[in-house]
């Protein structure tokens, strides 16, 4: 047999082997595998990569707003508080300006700083606590029944703890007396963290003018921050409480409460 005939025989032998035909099961398996990879990539984006990008963007936006307020003309000083014992001329305390309630799904002209969560933490506050209107934009939302910053009552807010920038991701890492600062064009409202607890989702009394004291008249000036708990679950709510300390007018510069903590 010549070399040419042997080569022809080998080609014929290869050509005679039956090809494996794709079955419905194999095609379905490939599609499911591809879909699984896509789902995992989307989950990774939502929980990690997207969070990092959205959080950084939110802080950058907040910083831009703060800088714009600082460059503009400072509002006039509010009245000095006289508690009946005279005014301390060296360390006067100022009446916190009253704010109007925010509109649902609209940035309020206020933002939150928490030095414990980083010197660059600067997140916008908006009206409402629904996901599509407010929380899924990476904002901190104000409850419709909330009191106003610095005023008697309970200033109540909510935000995501996971995904969408997770503004309240580190709510459980607050330390006693940590500053929670609300910045507006007028100045800075400083609250001090007091305690943390976990409640069921239906425990709406944490939003009362006096937290968990339904029917009690508003006397103190509180702040209440809420988020879902544990992480990636809706089983409970984590709640952080604080009390109002002081208002610093913008004309006097940023308050000491904004200093970084260790």
TrEMBL record:
- Identify this protein by name: Sortase family protein
Q: Which InterPro entries match?
A: Sortase, Sortase_Class_E, Sortase_dom-sf, Sortase_E
Q: Which residues form the active site?
A: 160 (proton donor/acceptor), 228 (acyl-thioester intermediate)
Q: Kindly give the NCBIfam families that the UniProt entry links to this protein.
A: class_E_sortase
Which Pfam families does its entry note?
Sortase
Q: Which domain of life is it from?
A: Bacteria
Question: Would I find Cell wall biogenesis/degradation among this entry's keywords?
Answer: no
In the record, what terms sit under GO molecular function? hydrolase activity
Which key words are in the record?
A: Hydrolase, Membrane, Transmembrane, Transmembrane helix
Ranges for region Disordered: 64-90
- Species the sequence originates in: Microbacterium azadirachtae
Q: Which residues cross the membrane?
A: 21-45
